[in-house]
């Protein structure tokens, strides 16, 4: 059957060239945070990058919501990939990594001011959210060489090399990919840098056999001195900004971008209690605000953690099998008996995880993201604190002081929230008032109240 | 008072201190006061030891400049890697000498030594963070302006311009060849680390050739090597390696264009560009 439809090329994970075109229902569920199941970030992609020396494993996920026939992705890759270097994995693993590293809300309950236990409840940001192979063949045309052709999982994959951008553009167009204007120049730049192109479409028959109604993440493993995530094709004609989450899995430490500034997301602040019910909105607004503050040119660090040293580990860390699936080859499989470099207690693994979040467009991010691995193993995570005032009866002197201090504390929380998110301070105060965080100081008790109070009771 | 401003190192200390304060307060540079103190103590200590052993007057100013440069450019979790860098930086001034000059730019030597150690025996011990400045043009301009003043005072105004000009020409030519938007090379040129390197490191009068022609070759060569390392070998710290390589071959370049050696506080007019002076071998000078 000839393909009569036009494929919509879209930027897969970041790196990808997402040439998102027509109609593409490229709605991408961001992550669901706390109880909010709103789609936080549209047009988002998630990429996990295992990097050790020149070894790289890239896992690319996108929440493509449109007609699967319309799905297509072009990813510039540094080398021609063999069949064994391509894999399709379970999206649950990336979702798990996402959930594990997402900014989170922490609740503390004030103790009785008259007499310290603390309870920590984490509202973790929930996540946003198999293989057959056919023989490869070569063919020529348009100055385009199909270096290899595979069917992996539900994807039909071709690895292309090209001599000229116009030839490649023509080939892609004639093969049902619809290229946006301006893509040709970018393709040309990649071609001159001797880049190959990883092109994938959905094999509908295979897809039906998976029984899934979504597409699973594609993985590629290769060696290259370049530690780069190609985002340029994805910006060619994108409407507005695209969201990208990069999860670095490394051995020595945190990753950061060298050609853009990597900025830590504000963390650790106390925010009003009502944020609990709208943590999703809070996070989204805060991220937008921070992007603006950095002139839309920064990459944000949301999480950086040495998984060998989690003591205690945050809830539900990634298992060794999951990490191996994402490319962390040095862990050894659970059954192989291979030992990690150093013994890790409990769920700890010898991996450093970095989560970066970037909102990009061509104007502010003209160049691909170039990364480097640092030796920084200090821990960081985006974390926002709810402090519940003590609600019980307490009548000592300390309790009075405590209650008198509360309005000041609430005001500070309101200002913090306004500052972080850009929300209107008066609205915030109103919401807080409505939510039992009153700014009215308690009526000062008349001096004589306690003078004979005790006597009365007796009488 | 006049004497204070005659020596360009004073300007340099002021400007680098201001940049460090700016970086720490507005750019969240990850360098702690304890780390700066450790670098300073090590640098001064080694300077003192070196001065004592070579019987020259103890001169703290260059050690302070090296401290500031390392604090601006090198990062580590612990104190020890930064102290090693400081010790190598100052130590190299006293030990690695040729024709009476130290071979390496001190801070550059410290950085290179730690980068190599971090990739071999001390994995991940220290690293540079080229993205930390961001790419705000105004910042680059401010650094350049401040650096301009410093380099002018030390009669090395040509070095940053030749270096940046050559580097800019190479990456712009590359962008044109690739058909890339010029926003890409512009992004790279606005990098604060690059501008800082050009105005405050490679232009150090003590480790650049004294002859104007030799200086041109030196600066342009460093730019070319930095370009090749960065764009063909994907080495993110290419500029530092480039300077180290040029420092190694500097005596050969100097032999082609001999000139009297710069001394701190020399008036600018004495070293007017391209004013050739009669042939003389650089005379040995003790380490300052």
UniProtKB/TrEMBL annotation, chain A:
Q: Residue span of the signal peptide, if any? A: 1-27
- What keywords sit in the KW lines? Signal
Protein's UniProt name: DUF2330 domain-containing protein
């Amino acid at each position: 059957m000839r393909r009569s439809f036009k494929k919509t090329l879209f930027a897969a994970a970041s790196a990808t060239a997402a040439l998102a075109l027509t109609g593409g229902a490229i709605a991408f569920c961001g992550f669901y945070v706390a109880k909010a199941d709103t789609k936080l970030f549209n047009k988002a992609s998630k990429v996990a990058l295992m990097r050790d020396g020149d070894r790289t494993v890239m896992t690319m996920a996108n929440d493509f919501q449109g007609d699967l026939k319309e799905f297509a992705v072009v990813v510039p890759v540094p080398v021609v990939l063999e069949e064994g270097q391509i894999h399709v994995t379970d999206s649950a693993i990336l979702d798990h990594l996402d959930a594990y590293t997402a900014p989170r809300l922490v609740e503390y309950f004030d103790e009785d001011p008259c007499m310290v236990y603390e309870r920590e409840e984490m509202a973790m940001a929930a996540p946003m959210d198999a293989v057959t192979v056919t023989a490869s063949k070569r063919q020529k045309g348009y100055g385009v060489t199909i270096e290899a052709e595979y069917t992996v999982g539900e994807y039909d994959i071709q690895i292309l090399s090209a001599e000229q951008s116009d030839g490649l553009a023509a080939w892609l167009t004639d093969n049902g990919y619809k290229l946006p204007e301006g893509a040709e120049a970018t393709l040309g730049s990649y071609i001159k840098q001797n880049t190959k192109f990883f092109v994938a479409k959905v094999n509908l028959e295979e897809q039906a056999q998976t029984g899934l109604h979504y597409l699973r993440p594609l993985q590629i493993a290769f060696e290259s001195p370049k530690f780069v995530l190609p985002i340029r094709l994805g910006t060619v004609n994108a409407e507005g900004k695209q969201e990208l989450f990069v999860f670095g899995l490394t051995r020595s430490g945190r990753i950061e971008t060298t050609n853009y500034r990597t900025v830590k997301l504000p963390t650790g602040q106390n925010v009003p209690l009502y944020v609990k019910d709208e943590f999703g909105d809070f996070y989204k607004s805060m991220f937008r605000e921070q992007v603006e503050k950095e002139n839309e040119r920064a990459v944000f660090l949301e999480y950086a953690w040495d998984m060998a040293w989690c003591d205690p580990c945050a809830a539900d860390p990634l298992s060794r099998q999951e990490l191996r699936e994402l490319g962390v080859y040095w862990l050894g499989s659970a059954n192989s008996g291979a030992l990690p470099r150093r013994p890790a207690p409990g769920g700890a693994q010898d991996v450093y995880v970095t989560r970066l979040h970037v909102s990009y467009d061509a104007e502010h991010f003209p160049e691909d993201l170039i990364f480097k691995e640092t030796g920084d193993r200090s821990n960081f995570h985006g974390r926002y604190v709810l402090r519940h005032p003590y609600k019980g009866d307490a009548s000592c002197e300390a309790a009075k002081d405590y209650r008198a201090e509360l309005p000041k504390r609430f005001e500070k929380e309101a200002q913090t929230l306004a500052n972080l998110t850009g929300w209107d301070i008066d609205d915030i105060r109103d919401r807080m008032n409505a939510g039992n965080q009153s700014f009215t100081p308690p009526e000062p008790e008349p001096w004589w109240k306690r003078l004979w109070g005790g006597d009365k009771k007796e009488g | 008072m006049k004497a204070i401003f005659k020596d360009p190192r004073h300007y340099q200390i002021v400007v680098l201190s201001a940049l460090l304060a700016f970086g720490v307060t507005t750019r969240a540079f990850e360098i702690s006061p304890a780390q700066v103190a450790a670098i300073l103590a090590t640098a001064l200590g080694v300077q003192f030891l070196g001065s004592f052993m070579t019987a020259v007057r103890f001169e703290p100013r260059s050690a302070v400049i090296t401290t500031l440069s390392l604090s601006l450019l090198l990062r580590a979790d612990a104190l020890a890697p930064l102290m090693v860098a400081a010790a190598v930086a100052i130590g190299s001034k006293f030990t690695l000498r040729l024709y009476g000059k130290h071979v390496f730019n001190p801070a550059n030597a410290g950085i290179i030594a730690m980068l190599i150690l971090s990739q071999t025996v001390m994995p991940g011990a220290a690293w540079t963070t080229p993205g930390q400045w961001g790419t705000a043009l105004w910042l680059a301009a401010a650094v350049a302006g401040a650096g301009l003043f410093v380099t002018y005072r030390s009669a090395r105004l040509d070095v940053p311009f030749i270096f940046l000009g050559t580097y800019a020409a190479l990456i712009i030519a590359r962008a044109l060849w690739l058909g890339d938007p010029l926003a890409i090379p512009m992004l790279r040129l606005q990098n604060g680390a690059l501008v800082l390197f050009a105005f405050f490191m490679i232009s150090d009068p003590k480790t650049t050739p004294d002859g104007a022609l030799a200086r041109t070759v030196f600066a342009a060569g460093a730019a070319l090597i930095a370009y090749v390392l960065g764009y063909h070998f994907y080495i993110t710290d290419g500029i530092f390696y480039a300077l180290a390589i040029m420092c190694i071959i500097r005596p050969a370049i100097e032999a082609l264009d001999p000139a009297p050696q710069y001394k701190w506080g020399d008036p600018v007019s004495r070293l007017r560009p391209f004013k050739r002076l009669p042939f003389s071998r650089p005379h040995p000078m003790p380490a300052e």
